Amino acid sequence: MKEDILNLAQEFVSIPSNPDNTEALATILNLALSKLSNFTIERFERNGATSALVYVGPVRPKKFKVLLNGHLDIIPGKPEQYTPVVKGKRLYGVGVMDMKANLASMLYAFAETAHKVSYPLGLQLVTDEELGGFDGTKYQVEQGVRADFVLTSEPTNFDIVYKARGIIWLKISSRGKTAHGAYPWRGENAIWTMHEFLAALKKQYPIPTKEKWVTTVNVAKIETNNQSLNKIPDDCTVSLDIRYIPEDTNVLQKIKKLLPKGFSMEVLTDEPALDTDSNNSYIQALQGVSSKILKKKITKRGAFGSSDARHFGRYKCPGIEFGPIGEGIGSDNEWVDIPSLEKFNTILTTFLLELDISSVPVKKR
């Protein structure tokens, strides 16, 4: 099994499945599905993004007990990174830990257990997670895919991530009054007015100087239609990337209260935070299995970035992120620990099989 996982991971890395490479995305999805020919494969497509749902039986279960989720698209890397390299116990390559090697391990765990368990188990493969997962995981959820528990194999170094920050993208616009730059008292500079708002926003949400579980606001872009240096701009728009913790409720309302008169706000994206009960029975079961196999205490924590698990939150389907050991996500030296891939596979296989005999409620097929 170890060699199968490693070989598939290397095959995955060699395919340049960048978000804009539709041919490579189709190729890698078909490669993954070729390992699952003895299962029902349901395909989805929206806005050019393809995904698949894999399960046992001719009819999709109304609700899966456990749904394993993974993405095959990646943050693009340098040309040489698409050639997988093994150095010692590490496999290097673009997207190897986010999450091609993880997914290879999870795929084989699903194939090993899905025909053995008495409950409905599913595998969800998507190709647009790096773009937000709106036409992959989210689309499948909108088409009725549900689960009692969702596990996405994001890289976590065997920590269990049960909460993650939500995403809000905003455009804030201010209006002013134009005039000649030599006579500023005759106009109202929209950029200065915007500056005052941003100062108030920064006071509300200070920029942390170190890793801290708080809501953060990134000013991603500042724009004006004014192209003249001797003219007072009468418009200014800022684009904000807000990452909010589940505990911070009513973020939009708080920002609206800061808006001066005449300002407008456009919500581009409002994605929920991942917020699963840390005492969830599935988490406890996974924590117990992982601790036994790894022979160490398993940490439960929050994540600063988001994953496709959040798309299930709106439908009260609890989810987590859980994956093997690695580092360098999105960097020139992304790697995954090869022995941890086999351990990840063993943990998932044991966890899925033991659900049949555990106290976690099982709905028979």
Account of the 3D structure:
With 365 residues, the protein is α+β, with helices and mostly antiparallel strands. It folds into two domains: 2-164 and 273-354, Zn peptidases (Aminopeptidase, 3-Layer(aba) Sandwich); 166-271, Alpha-Beta Plaits, CATH 3.30.70.360. It is built from eight helices and 17 strands. The chain has helices at residues 2-13, 22-34, 96-113, 137-142, 190-204, 251-258, 281-294, 338-354; strands spanning 40-46, 49-55, 64-71, 85-87, 90-92, 121-126, 147-152, 160-164, 166-175, 216-223, 235-244, 264-271, 274-275, 300-303, 319-321, 326-327, 335-337. The strands form four sheets. Strands 1-2-6-3-7-15 form a six-stranded mixed β-sheet. Strand 4 (85-87) and strand 5 (90-92) form a beta hairpin. Helix 3 packs parallel to helix 8 and helix 7 (281-294) packs across helix 8. It is elongated. It starts with a helix and ends in an 11-residue tail after the last helix. The mean pLDDT is 95.
Radius of gyration: 23 Å
Distance between the termini: 28 Å
Strand content: 25-35%
**Spatial order of the strands forming the largest sheet:** 1-2-6-3-7-15
Number of helices: 8
Helical residue percent? Answer: 25-40%
What shape does the CA trace take? elongated
Class derived from helix and strand content: alpha+beta
Largest beta-sheet details: 6 strands, mixed
Mean pLDDT: 95
The unreliable regions are none
Write down the secondary-structure element order.
Answer: HHEEEEEHEHEEEHEEHEEHEEEEH
Count of individual domains = 2
CATH superfamily of the largest domain: Zn peptidases
Determine and state the CATH class of the largest domain.
Answer: Alpha Beta
